Amino acid sequence: MDKNNILLTGFMGTGKTTISHELHRITKMEEIDLDAYIVEKMNCSINDIFEKQGETFFRNLETDCLKEILKKKNIILSCGGGTVLRTKNVDLMRQNGKIVLLTAEPQTIYDRVRNHTERPLLNQNMNVEYIAELLEKRKNAYFEAADMIICTDGRNTADICQEILMKIEKIFGKI
Ligand code: S3P
To answer: What average pLDDT does range 52-66 have in this prediction?
Structure first.
């Protein structure tokens, strides 16, 4: 068990990858991206996995990879936007790290993801209304899992990372 891991969660487009890079730069902790880990393991894009094998297959893969990755210590893990939707993933995450939830308004999320095509759940539904609807459905799962909640709307990366590191220190002690 290693509570030293920093586990970044939040809806697509809340900035998990960007924040992970900056936290890595500041702390020098190893950085892993759950989606990238899956893509490398399967040698297949997330779009292709969803299209060819379906979402349930992807979710099972996500749980297996999460288990594998969390054997490591002292890492920053950027989870997928749907990782906390499974209770067993959240249990595993709770046992192995600090769960940092990044939030953003639907309009902010839309502005950040609108030109990207690698998110199968949004590819056919790229609009603010759909994002707001899906966010609302997932809200409880995100908030219940979180050890801390960090708003990212209108803020720069440095400012967000400073808040995360300050809160981690306050709640859990020095990294
Ligand atoms: C998903 C989010 C994606 C990826 C997959 C499903 C989701 O990750 O895991 O497309 O269900 O919210 P990002 O949040 O990194 O885009």
So the answer is: 98
